[in-house]
Amino acid sequence: MAAETIPAEVHPAATDPTPIFFPGADGSDPVTIGVGIFLIVCVLAVGLLFLRLHTLPERIAHKRQKFQFEIVAVLGLLALFTHIHLFWVAGLILALVELPDLSGVFGSMATSLRDIATNTRRDVETKTEFRTRPAPASFEASQKAKEDLTDA
Prior knowledge:
Among the domains are: 34-96, no CATH class; 107-140, no CATH class. Helix content is 60%, strand content 5%. The chain has 6 helices and 2 strands, in the order αααααββα. The protein has helices spanning 30-54, 56-61, 66-82, 85-96, 103-118, 137-151, and strands spanning 120-123, 128-131. A two-stranded antiparallel ribbon has the order 1-2.
């Protein structure tokens, strides 16, 4: 069988050059390849945008206290895995609100209560302890009893 020959003459109604959206004679389709690459890039960009937006509360809370950051991070993970958006909103609100640092207040209260209980006072600059007034007899007796118990 003889191979078919392509006529040298082009039909007069055909346009010269053919549009880009026509597939080539070899079967390649540049528009489909371009659209496929564009689709992959768009899906990756939307995914990165979603993850960037999803971690917004954690990035805000990172500047705050460690405890607050941990709570916001847990709320973000719950929102991610359960698809309950209320967790994300709660994490964002918690990240935006600056919680007061109560550890310093509670620490100074505990120190003051210990000083009151032992009738001592600390000098902040020299960090030395001294008695503010003589201890009552019952306190001295209880301290001696404690010492006797620890020695035994």
